[in-house]
Design a protein that fits this description.
The protein is of the alpha/beta class. It contains 13 helices and 16 strands. Helix 3 crosses helix 6 and helix 10 crosses helix 11.
Length: 413
Amino acid sequence: MTGREVVVTGLGPVTPIGVGRQEFWRAQLAGVSGVRTVTRFDPAGFPVRIAGEVDLPAALAPGSREERSTDRCTHLALAAARLAVEDASLDLAAEDRDRVGVVLGTGAGGAGGWETNARLLETSGPNRIAARSVVMSMANSSASHIALSCGITGPSTSVVSACASGGEALIGAHQMIASGEADVVLAGGAEAPVTPLLLAGFARTGALSARNDEPGRASRPFDADRAGFVLAEGAAVLILESAEHARARGAEVLARLSGYGRSSDAHHVTSPHPEGAGAARAMRAALRSAGWSAADIGYVNAHGTGTRYNDAAEAKALHAVLGEAAARTPVSATKSMTGHSLGAAGAVEAVVCVQALLHGCVPPTVNLDAVDPGFGLDVVGAEPREVRLGTALSNSFAFGGHNVVLAFGAGGV
């Protein structure tokens, strides 16, 4: 990897199992599930009635004006940004804010706002549509509001590549810093897809688990009895900086974003390549950019959605890239606890990787009664595993065939 070294100095997770760095980590170690019967609307009559929902603490909840003028996705993004800035002890007032950037990924953006106004149009006519209906629902709204709220005047952009968006946003931030365009970037993803249309639409694809009577056991990546993913909302923002900038301000370096890889399946809009070929290309690219070999990988946070085809393809990709090491490299799938937050997932799981490196501990994969016998992977089950870690990969694979892999190394300057 050429250019300036990029480090992580702050974490802002907003998830169904915990909000904030410490609460999120404690919930992971405890194997908490954030999946429950949907409360954001009445799901009666829906074939799938469960999801991962976030309970924002009052201190991070939007004010009444902000709530009216922005979508739920932006509410979660702003909360994550505030947490990350605080966690990094980043005094934005002391920064040259022309040298601070924002990159935020999302899959559906302000879908809830579009749905609400579409229903209003149908029932009450065009004159009842909110004047801010377009700006509150556009995909770049979250990035825009983070920049507005923080007074950031450097580059601000949005990434939309479905479930790979959060990971791809971190790549965009890395490129800004490595190239010298910015010194600090607030980067991550946000998603608020627990809406009637999206829940019904994903259910119609057959991709969702319909284990409505046992919400906490519905998300079961790599398990032989897996039957689909669980839709979830969430957000995560990470503070990325150049190593020089972090050193100059005395920041704690939590980890290094050492490399990344991207590829396209060019196979099918919803199904992964059955041999995991695209995923494997992205993993190899991440290793090359970080200057690592397969033997160097200490932990893989899998995309691990819990669908029949995605988990099988990812297992084949891991074997293709890691070779014999695939059977002994710890793998976990934290979507078993958080559900799948689509465009936010890659950022949420980047936080998981940084925390695993910090604590020398791999979080569990809950609901793993029996690993699919065809996988041949060392999937960490119900209990976290203490492991001395120096490196971690975070996998994100998406509808459309987008594949993103991030390579994190242990911190310290």
